[in-house]
UniProtKB/TrEMBL annotation:
Belongs to the Nudix hydrolase family. This is ADP-ribose pyrophosphatase. It comes from the Bacteria. The lineage of its organism: Bacteria, Bacillati, Bacillota, Bacilli, Lactobacillales. Residues 64-194 form the Nudix hydrolase domain. It comes from Lactococcus garvieae.
Length: 209
């Protein structure tokens, strides 16, 4: 466990304890622990004070991992990617899970909003713990879900958060430079091609050591 993951876990423990503990003296001590943890986070990470404020105050109940959902959509043997306006990098369509939607509905909605395509999610083909793979370090603890989808339309139309949407061949993916590695790594994209060619019955997940 690296420093960022350790700080995130300590924050989750403190916030969860604050939510359930009603003893006034325990809550005072937990509040002091949270302030100390905030100060340590400022010294040991590169996050801004505003980013840390948002992080420490976003989960005030029982703290659980956030869920990032990505959609894998093919046209023949080419994979759909969208370019984020904010960063100018390419990623699979997707985003955070929203209350009121199932994971598959989120995948469908994100594809529509970011590329203009209508799809049907067919299979959850990958579910991973972000901290256990080669993604950038994050204060949020994240589970990533990848849905294999069937496209029903193919007229691409970027959305409010995307500047471009297009299909890429495997050869193009192998040399693509500006991949949004926080959303998906090159390995994620290449595994999507493997699944497209050789679909399996179950989803890939992190095995227990």
């Amino acid at each position: 466990m690296d420093t960022t993951q350790a700080l995130a876990k300590l924050k989750a423990l403190v916030n969860t304890s604050l939510y359930y503990n009603k003893d006034v003296y325990d809550r005072e001590r937990l509040g002091e622990m949270k302030e100390i943890l905030f100060d340590i986070s400022q010294k040991l990470t590169s996050y801004s004070e505003a980013e840390l404020e948002a992080f420490f105050n976003e989960d005030l109940g029982y703290v659980t991992p956030k869920v990032d959902i990505r959609a894998v959509v093919f046209e023949d043997d080419r994979l759909l990617l969208v370019k984020e306006k904010e960063e100018g990098q390419w990623s699979l369509p997707g985003g955070w899970a929203d209350v009121g939607y199932s994971p598959a509905e989120i995948a469908q909605k994100e594809v529509r909003e970011e590329s203009g395509l209508e799809v049907i999610p067919l299979q959850l083909f990958k579910l991973v713990d972000k901290a256990k793979h080669d993604y950038p370090k994050s204060l949020n603890y994240v589970y990533k879900l990848f849905f294999y989808c069937e496209a029903k339309t193919f007229e691409l139309q970027p959305g409010l958060e995307t500047s471009e949407a297009r299909f890429f061949s495997r050869e193009e993916i192998e040399t693509l430079q500006n991949i949004s590695v926080d959303r998906n790594t090159r390995e994620d994209l290449l595994e999507a091609f493997e699944y497209h060619h050789h679909p399996t019955a179950g989803a890939k997940f992190d095995l227990v050591q």
